[in-house]
Design brief:
homodimer, 257 residues, alpha/beta, 60s Ribosomal Protein L30, Chain: A, Alpha/beta knot, four-stranded mixed sheet, 11 helices, 11 strands, elongated
């Protein structure tokens, strides 16, 4: 059992929790909690760390069979955990590496493109909602928050394991490629002439979602085939980015069912 | 200018930031940021605190005319602020006191009932989305997170000023009253036979939204006139509470427009 927070494995976990650079260098990320452990594709699971009290539960110990795991004293586990009330299980998982073409599988792809999204909770929630809505893949500009940030991972509720995604330095170049493939680009935009429910998303479609406070850059919005407006009552000027994305994705799903 | 964090006004602001009990006793709450300041109904504005550097901006000083305000040194302001990069303006606002009947104004009320909602960001986002979707009022069970929690307030983006709401110790009693007024209750529920877009929300309607991890209690779900299901692809078991509420509210809005 690891009982010291100066143990080299513990020090490495703290680095992986805090530093995107270190996660990328080692090509791994961390997930916490029993649900995230159960859903992880086994071939990606590199190592599991459990707290002593988690391990002393017989049911839990059984679940760890065939995993490479290490028991950690409760206080040390708490220091490593990213949550206030840790469940007692933390996994090191190998990062995903999709191709750009993985985002648009199937006959009528439904995609998202996120530009400079900054809030970890928003990004995670968008992944979770996207899986629920049947989105085929998510494109992210390089200046979006890191998907492997522990707060993002937690909000995905496991969708990070299943939703193809791709970070790009050239968002507009990637969007032009989608257009050449026949994917229509819809920009959620206050200047949209049509409301979002007046367009047809049955054909290959992608929604462009911008930064929480600035929205889409003009250059990216200019690429869109169509501006769509989410109508808002009262004095509301915009919706939360994850909410706007959800309203659009579920309208597409509604039309497709 | 206040330069000491032991100043009695500063000590009181810290209490108001942290303690719901103190907010309720003084019948006030705090808001931060220039947008929240500009949108506040003037008759509710009790006092404004600005940081020294905020105040030294001439445009800002002009906006403070006719307000009772106090200048606070930058370091003391930072200690009082709830955000990492404070905008430099914080207001003490008088709390709202709606009647239960305020939630259902108009010919075809569209309401929300929230049971034991715990996440501050979710609650604030729900208020913001609700105003955008044209919801008439929000009912909250007494065990929901405090609306006047600074994190909730921030996520409402000002909708807290305009959306009627009512906390109740007797959620089920209140829901029965709505039913007697002819309001149909729809529970977002995994066991719904119909998907959410197969029902008609043009008539007086209310959506019941449950706790983030447990969902609705059985007793409350049992009251619903109809269970509705939000279809989910992949391995998604549920949506984020604010996202689920948004999908339902915007479907109602779509049908009503």
């Amino acid at each position: 059992m690891i009982t010291s927070s100066t143990n080299s494995q513990i020090k490495n976990l703290l680095q992986l929790k805090k530093k995107a650079k270190e996660r990328n260098r080692q090509d791994v990320f961390l997930v916490e909690g029993i649900k995230m452990f159960r859903e992880v594709p086994r071939e990606r699971l590199q190592k599991v760390y459990v707290s002593n009290s988690f391990y002393n539960n017989t049911d839990h110990a059984r679940e760890l069979e065939n995993c490479e795991y290490e028991v950690v004293s409760d206080p040390v586990f708490e220091a490593v955990s990213d949550t206030k009330t840790p469940q007692g299980i933390l996994c090191v998982i190998r990062q995903f590496h999709y191709d750009f073409s993985d985002l648009t599988r199937g006959e009528a792809p439904l995609c998202l493109a996120l530009e400079n999204l900054q809030d970890p909770g928003n990004l995670g929630t968008i992944f979770r909602t996207a899986e629920g809505a049947g989105v085929t893949g998510i494109l992210l500009s390089a200046n979006c928050v890191d998907l492997y940030n522990p707060k993002v991972i937690r909000s995905t509720m496991g969708s990070v394991y299943r939703m193809p995604f791709y970070y790009t330095d050239d968002l507009r170049g990637a969007l032009r490629q989608w257009q050449q493939q026949g994917i229509s680009l819809y920009a959620a935009h206050l200047q949209g002439k049509n409301t979002y429910d007046q367009e047809n998303y049955g054909k290959p479609s992608a929604f462009l979602i911008g930064n929480e406070s600035q929205g889409l850059t003009k250059e990216t919005a200019d690429l869109a085939d169509c501006y769509i407006r989410i109508p808002m009552s009262g004095q509301v000027e915009s919706l939360n980015a994850a909410v706007a994305a959800a309203v659009l994705m579920y309208e597409a799903r509604r039309q497709r069912s």
